[in-house]
Write a structure and sequence with these properties.
Blueprint lengths: L1 E4 L5 E4 L4 E6 L3 E5 L4 E4 L3 H16 L11
Antiparallel strand pairs: 1-2, 3-4, 4-5
Length: 70
């Protein structure tokens, strides 16, 4: 999941695996597999970098479990 900013400055968290296309003109439009379109403030290269970071995190070994102190 990646968190982006809509044009109206509200946050939206998007499932990165559902992104089909990212288009940049004046604004950046994300098209999801469902056909839904979301217009966001972030530029396409930034969104691509976030998706790559998300996928790297998903594919990295799990960290050691940290136990809460008593």
């Amino acid at each position: 999941m990646i968190t982006l900013t809509r044009i109206d400055t509200t946050s939206i968290t998007v499932n990165a695996d559902e992104i089909e296309t990212v288009e940049s003109y004046h604004d950046t439009t994300i098209t999801l597999r469902s056909g839904r379109r979301i217009i966001v403030q972030e530029a396409a290269p930034f969104i691509i970098a976030m998706v790559i970071a998300y996928r790297r995190e998903c594919n990295s070994p799990l960290p050691a479990v940290i136990q809460k102190p008593d």
